[in-house]
Structure formats: structure tokens, C-alpha cells
Design goal:
CATH class of one domain: Alpha Beta
Distance between the termini: 43 Å
Number of strands: 10
Order of helices and strands: EEEHEEHEHHHHEHEHEEHH
CATH architecture of one domain: 3-Layer(aba) Sandwich
Strand order of the largest sheet: 6-7-8-3-9-10
Radius of gyration: 18 Å
Helix content: 25-40%
Strand content: 15-25%
Number of helices: 10
Bound molecules: adenosine-5'-diphosphate, magnesium ion
CATH topology of one domain: Rossmann fold
């Protein structure tokens, strides 16, 4: 194991009920300040894997390490508070009944008032769209703005690990570019390690260092992002087969 390994998942078996395994022995890792993407067809276990790494689901077997520490049995709130985790779930990732500002405050509820205020200022500088809409209701934001708010909310406690579940879901190509730009900025500015699930495979690979393709609860393909973009198997999966 190298010492810049940030997430290490070893032979994870997990599911929602005792008799059905959704994850059937998954291993992966991320290094410091990498962007790593998880791809794969609907229902193959991508969200389940992120929820297991986050701590919403306890693995039946296997281990999860954050920076070398065994966090396999640590619940999500403790991982957020003590182990540098930020998590943006696939759905319902902002509080639409609250303002943009108050969404950020909720993300910073472990910080004292001063630290929270400073962190909101920092994130507003990084993502000016939030500053412009700080007192607006989160319900009034566009899809792209909401994703950036969800990202910023998870970033409030200055996580070292960020898990993002389909940050570009439902966005137009232009908004997708903006959200991916926001993700790259946070990696560049704060050296956060990012593990994200994406449906937009080729666009996600363009901003990623490496990727894992899941199939039926196992890792089917893995490699550097640029190699996967040119991989025949990826073309078959995502571009509807090889040319005749
Ligand atoms: N809350 C849940 N309870 C029971 N089964 C679930 C639940 N969420 C997902 N599943 C099942 O787990 C499998 C993997 O789902 P999921 O991880 O959401 O896939 P993906 O994110 O790759 O589309 C699917 O068969 C799905 O039906
Ligand atoms: Mg999913």
C-alpha cells in the first residue's frame, strides 16, 4: 500500500437484505487528489457502493480504509465529522425549504459560527453563482445551480474525500460542463480526492484520472481514464457497438 492512498475498498460484499448481495467482492482505491469515476449500467450497484463507502450500509464482508484507518464499521455522521468525508447523494441533495445560505450552514453544522462564516465566504468566492443567490430559496435554483450547492454544502467541513453520486444527472450539456468545471476546481484548489458515479461516461472520463466499470456487483474493467476512452469494450458499452 502506498502512503498517499486515500480510500481503499477491499473485497466488499454488501446488500440491503441478508439473502441478496448487491456488491459481490469489490476492491478499488483512490490516491490523494485523484478524480476517479465509477461507471456501469443501471442497477449494477454504483450507488450502493458509494452508500457503503459513506457508511449508510454496513458491509457484510471486506474492509474500507480512509487514509489507512479502518472505517468499515463507522457510521456516516462520524465519517463526516472525524474522517474527512463529504457525500452528495444521487437525489434530494439540497433542502428546498431553505435558502442557499442556510443550506451551506447546515453543511457546516459541526463548525463554530466564525469558521462557518469564513467557509461560506471561501466557497462563494470559488463558486460565484452561490454568492449571487445566497438569500434565494434553494427551490428557485436551476438544476446545475442545485448540484453546485449540493457540492458546496458537502465541502463546508473541508473534507479530504468527496463521494458524488451522479452530479450531472438531468443537466443540459452546458450545465454539465459547469458542474464538471466546479468539480475540477475543488480538486485543484483544495486537493480533495473525488470518487464519483456518472452516467455521462465519456464526459466524466475527460475530467477523471482513472475509472472503474462495474457489472453485476463486481469490477469488470479498470484503468486510466484516457486508456478507457479508447477501449473497445467501453465503446461497445457506451457507444452502441463497434463500427462494422
Ligand atoms: N434501498 C434499497 N433496498 C433494496 N434494494 C435496493 C435499494 N436500493 C437499490 N437496491 C437494489 O440494489 C441494486 C443496485 O442498485 P443501485 O446501487 O442503486 O444501482 P446503480 O446506482 O448502479 O444504478 C438494484 O438491484 C436495486 O434494485
Ligand atoms: Mg445510482
Amino acid at each position: 500500500m502506498t502512503n498517499n492512498r486515500v480510500i481503499e475498498v477491499k473485497d466488499i460484499i454488501a446488500g440491503y437484505t441478508r439473502d441478496v448481495d448487491v456488491l459481490c467482492g469489490i476492491s478499488l482505491h483512490t490516491d490523494a487528489a485523484e478524480i476517479v469515476t465509477l461507471l456501469g449500467p443501471n442497477g449494477c450497484g454504483k450507488s450502493t457502493l458509494l452508500k457503503t463507502i459513506a457508511g449508510y450500509i454496513r458491509p457484510r464482508l471486506g474492509k474500507i480504509l480512509f487514509e489507512g484507518k479502518d472505517v468499515s464499521r463507522i457510521a456516516v455522521h462520524d465519517k463526516i465529522r472525524r474522517h474527512g468525508l463529504g457525500f452528495v447523494p444521487q437525489t434530494e441533495n439540497v433542502f428546498t425549504s431553505l435558502s442557499v445560505h442556510d443550506n451551506l450552514r447546515v453543511g457546516g453544522h459541526y463548525l463554530d459560527d466564525n469558521a462557518c462564516r469564513r467557509r461560506i465566504e471561501t466557497l462563494c468566492t470559488l463558486y460565484p453563482v452561490l454568492e449571487r443567490k445566497l438569500s434565494a430559496s434553494a427551490a428557485s435554483l436551476s438544476g446545475g445551480e442545485r448540484q453546485i450547492l449540493a457540492l458546496a454544502r458537502a465541502l463546508m467541513p473541508e473534507p479530504t474525500i468527496l463521494l458524488l453520486d451522479e452530479p450531472s444527472a438531468g443537466l443540459s450539456p452546458k450545465m454539465l460542463d459547469e458542474v464538471f468545471e466546479a468539480i475540477q476546481q475543488i480538486r485543484a484548489k483544495e486537493l480533495v480526492t473525488i470518487l464519483m458515479v456518472e452516467q455521462n461516461a465519456m464526459e466524466a472520463l475527460r475530467i477523471s484520472d482513472r475509472a472503474y466499470v462495474l457489472s453485476m456487483g463486481t469490477v469488470a474493467i479498470t484503468g486510466p481514464a484516457d486508456a478507457l476512452m479508447n477501449d473497445e469494450r467501453m465503446r461497445e458499452l457506451y457507444l452502441g457497438g463497434r463500427p462494422a
